[in-house]
Amino acid sequence: MGPEPALDRPVEIAPFGTWRSPIRIEDVVGDVITLAEPWIDGDDVFWLEGRPAEAGRRALVRAAADGSTSDLTPPPFNVRSRVHEYGGGSYVVAGGVVVFSDFADGRLYRLDPGSGEAVSITPAGEWRHADLRPDPSRRRFIGVREDHTRPGMPTNTIVAIPLDGGESSVLVSGPDFVASPRVSPDGTRLAWLEWDHPDMPWDATRLRVAAFEPDGTLGASVLAAGGPEESIVQPEWAPDGTLHLISDRSGWWNLYRLVDGPRLEPLAPMEAEFADPSWIFDRSTYGFLPDGAIVAVARADGRDRLFRLEPGHLIGEIETPFTELDSLRVGPATIVSLASAPGDPAIVVRLDPSTLVPAGVLRRASSVTLDPATISRPESITFPTTEGLLARALYYPPTNPEFVAPDGEKPPLLVLTHGGPTSNASTGLDLTKQLMTSRGIAVVDVDYGGSTGYGRAYRRRLDGMWGVVDVDDTVAAARFLVERGDVDPDRLVIEGGSAGGYTTLAGLAFRDVFAAGITHYGIGDLELLEVEPHKFESHYSRRLVGPYPEAVERYRQRSPIHFVDDIDCPVLVLQGLDDHVVPPAQAEAIVAALASKGIPHAYLAFEGEGHGFRGAVAIRRTLEARLAFLGQVFGFEPADTIEPLDLPGIDEWRARRSARTTTPVAAAAGAGPAGESAPG
Fold first, then answer.
1. Using CA atoms in the order 253, 258, 262, 268, what is the torsion angle rounded to 10 degrees?
2. DSSP 480-505
3. DSSP, residue by residue, 147-178
4. How far apart, in whole angstroms, are the C-alpha atoms of residue 27 and residue 640?
5. Cβ(601)–Cβ(6) below 8 Å
6. Among 66, 107, 461, 595, which residue carries the largest CB count within 10 Å?
7. How far is residue 567's CA from residue 549's CA, in Å, rounded to a whole number?
8. In contact, 91 and 71? CB cutoff 8 Å
9. pLDDT digits 0-9 by tens, 463-511
């Protein structure tokens, strides 16, 4: 049965999936925004708002010292970068001067204090910019530029951009990738990160430092830290000129500082991660207070924690109501961060620099107010998987104080597989999950082997094993909850986007466990990642799968597109037609194969949407389609009035399925460890 009802509320008995929910689809789409990239300049705080009602446009917002809030970038400006395709580091503010990247043309624009008009400072052309920092003594900004003016892969360099416009000058070139250009407080040195194929920034990077010459160019650089098998991230200069960084040399991304030349001194050694994978530019998890202390965020046991590191290296964890803290910015008089918790959506929050306790909310991602009794709180679960290992996940039980299920009924389970795959599940309030749990559908968000937040060894479990370990762990999560008695073994659904969409399709093709699948811009053919790659990820799969083309047979054996004949359940395919990371051809190939076999499926493609849906139309339709799909697959009628979803052949499939006598999980369990039958 469902959770115990509150004694003072009328309770209705209804099947799981049919519960009326106080969380409407419009609540997820309407007055809901995304928050990103907070920044501090003097007494002002800035951030970006992604607005579905404006087709996902990102506006730069300023909260002034007097408490007023205003948009700085009117339509059609869309403050966003496409360097590495994922962007980040889209703007910077220094002395009231704003420099930002516009998504439409990739140019940088300057917005002066009191001016309502942005002026371009880079020429029109096939250039993209990110990760900007001021170089005030030379009246310029320094940042990463991605040059798409020549055929083939783009070129990544660190450039100096004159404040008043004009030609940018290249400061660093040669490596395949560069990031995090940071000017020392006295303006005499530049630190930056670089790495080369086939590594990703969470595999191996190098931290280099060079002095500025009198003409503003750089002298010879020295290797300050990093190298093969060591990931250095987030270099930052302390106010006294000491260079700090985060390294995973201990097996965990921990905080260090450079002393006595190349020696690294650990500041807070612990089994926790002080960094996230650098999918986007300008991630920030620590900063410096005026008294020399460091404020830092570290992740352990699936949640973020806040620390104050004193000059004597004393570590103090600060109690906080938040379980997710992102983009921490520390200024002389205030601290800001994006923050969320299981019962609270994302906010831009101020923290008191003296106590680090919340000192005010500047913006909320959602204005929706939920009854706490309606919110499903995640349970952190650890469960056995293949090779005698343990894996992690967050389990959200069905929760609605106005409903219980009939005696003996167990809920359907939606198994979520995050993207990346080098990423992790979040504990913050996610209305798309609550949309399901409040209707009687259980959710488990799996941090399969390869996920971040659990140290380098856990992250490296996926090396050479993509399509095996991730699938094994999602199956193990479902099996664990079935065996514990939480969910219905005959109603298991797998869902994911991007790399999670690949795990979804692989789970359907290579395991007989799930009754249905939902894939958002998922990868069906691993070879296409090699044939039609974008630069940042063009060698990513070589660590995850194997060298190409030497291991071409392994790529094919792990590509669901070649095993659609083994998929025997309904599939919902969702795709943005402007996706440059996983092009529509991937989805179209899967859909064509499903159609040729007569498998019930639906394909929804959205004009103007890329890798991740940002517009209200696509978000609303996706939410409706997911509910309609699950209702048709499992034979229940959602309580919502939603647009129908055409799913030809679903009645015949349900009739065939009802004749089965062995549940999918029981069949898989009887066949031995899932990994034994894995492809490749």
1. -40
2. HHHHHTSS-TT-EEEEEETHHHHHHH
3. E-SSSSS-EEEEEEEETT-S--EEEE-SSSEE
4. 13
5. no
6. 461
7. 27
8. no
9. 999 999 999 999 999 999 999 999 999 999 999 999 999 999 999 999 9
Q: pLDDT per residue over 96-150, tens digit each?
A: 999 999 999 999 999 999 888 999 999 999 999 999 999 999 999 999 999 999 9
CA angle 75, 76, 77 (to 5 degrees): 90
Tell me the backbone φ, ψ of residue 559, rounded to 5 degrees: -95, 115
Give the whole-angstrom CA distance, residue 132 versus residue 81. Answer: 11
Which two tokens mark 34?
């995304």
Nearest-angstrom CA–CA distance, 578 and 1: 44
First to last CA, the chain: 41
Angle at 620 between CA 619 and CA 621, to 5 degrees: 95
Q: Using CA atoms, how far apart are residues 59 and 63, in angstroms rounded to an integer? A: 13
Instruction: Write phi, then psi, for 247 (nearest 5 degrees).
Output: -130, 150
Dihedral (C-alpha) 585, 588, 589, 590: value to the nearest 10 degrees?
130
Residues 6+ apart with CB under 8 A from 332: 290, 353
Q: Determine which helix (DSSP H) or strand (DSSP E) holds 388, and give its type and residue range.
A: none
